[in-house]
Amino acid sequence: MNKLFLSFLAFTLLSISGYSQKISVIYQDPDFFSKREGNFFFMVHPDLKLDNHLLVATLKGTVTNTHKLNLNTLFDNFKRKANYLGANMFRIDTVARTEHDSITVTINIYQFFKEEAEYSNNKFKDPNIYIMGELIDEPDYITNLKINKEETFISPLTYLAIELADGEKLKLNKGGFTGTQVTFKGAPDRTPTFVTLGNFTASPSVSPGGGVGVSFSSGTISPVNMHFGYFIIAALGEKARINFEPAKLED
Q1: Which pLDDT does position 63 carry in this prediction?
Q2: Is residue 225 located within the same domain as residue 129?
Q3: Region label for 99, one of left (φ > 0), alpha (ψ between -120 and 50) or beta (otherwise)
Q4: I need a surface site. Which of 18, 31, 36, 205 has the fewest CB within 10 A?
Q5: Cα(215)–Cα(58) distance, integer angstroms
Q6: C-alpha radius of gyration, the chain, whole number
């Protein structure tokens, strides 16, 4: 019985390791003592200086844009590792893309007090609506929707960026009359807004950032956590961005 159990345990661990994503610790502060400050995982606003914040560790991970290894799983595993080490904030250090379409991301992680994290979050303002394509690089994963009644297609590993002026409306429809419809309205100093039409987790293990002038109906258009959204944008690079100018809606 014991031999059978050990064999089963070994097989289970092997199976888990085969499906897991390796996160490498490039650097870790040897003197850092973890004092838990929440299990969130937020991006540090680019304008914030980190002179007074200890670099807890530097993490690295690679994705191949497949079902098992994609930016969704990488972000989730970065979060798990960072929280385990006592960190809750990150800043992307480097992104490397190869000719074989793999992406390697290196991040620096820090520990913030909740008040500091909230201050950083409140500095994020963005007039754009970001519509994220699938994170799996396969032709079958091209998604389509209507933007202000105009048929549009989004290829995997790309995203649309639509700037909304104050008071301007944007309507997304997925699935026709019986599908999902989302309406946005431009506002001053709006919170960054990301949505997905795909099957990846909209906000892996973290609470989504808020939005100004947005209403969702249930269905296939889902909000994406803004920290995850900015992570995707940085990892994919500028070539993945499609600046889209939709037709104006009539009042």
Answers
A1: 96
A2: yes
A3: alpha
A4: 31
A5: 38
A6: 20
**Beta-carbon neighbour count of residue 103 at 10 Å?**
21
Sheet holding 24-28, edge to edge: 24-28, 55-63, 103-110, 89-97, 42-43
* pTM of the predicted model as reported, rounded to 2 decimal places: 0.85
Q: Supply the pLDDT for residue 200.
A: 65
Buried b (16+ CB within 10 A) or exposed e, 147-160: bbeeebebebbbbb
Specify whether 154 is located in the same domain as 100. Answer: no
Sheet bearing 150-154, strands edge to edge: 150-154, 143-147, 169-174, 180-185, 214-216
- Dump pLDDT digits (tens) for 100-116: 789 999 999 999 999 99
Residue 18: strand, helix, or coil = helix
Beta-bridge mates of residue 130: 161, 194
- Is residue 154 located within the same domain as residue 117? no
Q: Looking at per-residue confidence, does 151 or 175 come out higher?
A: 151
- Residue 219: closest CA among 179, 184, 246, 185: 179
Query: For 57-68, how does the pLDDT look when each residue is reduced to its tens digit (9 = 90+)?
Result: 999 999 999 989
Answer whether residue 212 shows pLDDT above 80: no
Is residue 231 domain-shared with residue 153, that is, in the same domain? yes
Q: Which domain holds residue 180?
A: 125-243
**How far apart (Å, rounded) are the C-alpha atoms in residues 219 and 213?**
19
Asked if 196 and 226 count as a contact pair (C-beta separation under 8 A), the reply is no
Among 64, 97, 121, give the residue marking a domain's end: 121
Which residue in the block uniquely carries the two structure tokens 């540090």? Answer: 44
What single string gives the DSSP state of each residue in 71-126? HHHHHHHHHHHHHHTT--EEEEEEEEE-TTS-EEEEEEEE---HHHHHHHHHT---
